[in-house]
Design brief:
The chain is mostly helical. It contains ten helices and no strands.
Length: 210
């Protein structure tokens, strides 16, 4: 006896389902906000039922925490890949501009997502705990990078400690992205380079925008 009909659709591997859900949540949270985006919305955008969300994440907070860790992993990976250590001080501002060039105004969606995740952290103690942990990891990594660049002589070269300079660079990056809709897009890397050039001027003799 013959049978007719199409073959059953093969379910994607669990890892693929999870990744598609994370990608969908990332887009929706950045564009519409965490609060207004439902898990149904995430499931539909990824092409699955709501059950797929709950088979991969305990709750919306669990999904937010996953995104926080993924965004931080990306930032840490980018910092580790920067070819800035070993640069001569006069060439450092240009090296900073080049290193941060891929993370300029075009990353507005990434910043919108991080803003939403931070907002959720204020409402959820569990999310706040992870948010603090992840942001400290970024600060610690950038501080270590600053120490490598200046070989432990950051105060002599810039007048700031490694911690102060790392915090300043983070503030420049976050602040320029936050104000971009009102003040116009300014590439954070360019601004960081200008500030470092100004700090190094007594040592290098160059101009602030060199």
């Amino acid at each position: 006896m013959s049978t007719t009909g199409s073959a059953p659709t093969k379910r994607p591997p669990r890892a693929e389902v999870r990744e598609r859900l994370i990608e969908a949540a990332s887009r929706l949270f950045a564009r519409h906000g965490v609060h207004t985006t439902t898990l149904d919305d995430v499931a539909k955008a990824a092409g699955f039922s709501k059950g797929a969300v709950y088979s991969n994440f305990d709750s919306k907070a669990d999904l937010v925490v996953t995104l926080l860790r993924r965004e931080t992993d990306g930032a840490l990976r980018a910092l580790h890949e920067m070819r800035v250590p070993g640069t001569d001080l006069p060439d450092l501002p240009a090296a900073i501009r080049a290193a941060f060039a891929p993370y300029g105004p075009g990353t507005a969606d990434d910043f919108s997502l991080m803003s939403e995740l931070r907002s959720q952290a204020l409402a959820e103690p569990r999310v706040m705990e992870v948010f603090v942990e992840q942001r400290r990891a970024v600060l610690d990594t950038l501080r270590g990078l600053v120490d490598q660049v200046f070989q432990g002589r950051t105060p002599d070269a810039t007048g700031l400690s490694s911690d102060q300079l790392a915090r300043l660079l983070i503030t420049i990056s976050v602040g320029s992205a936050f104000d971009a809709p009102a003040t116009g897009d300014v590439a954070p890397g360019d601004l960081m380079g200008d500030v470092v050039a100004a700090l190094l001027r007594p040592v290098t003799g160059g101009s602030p925008a060199a």
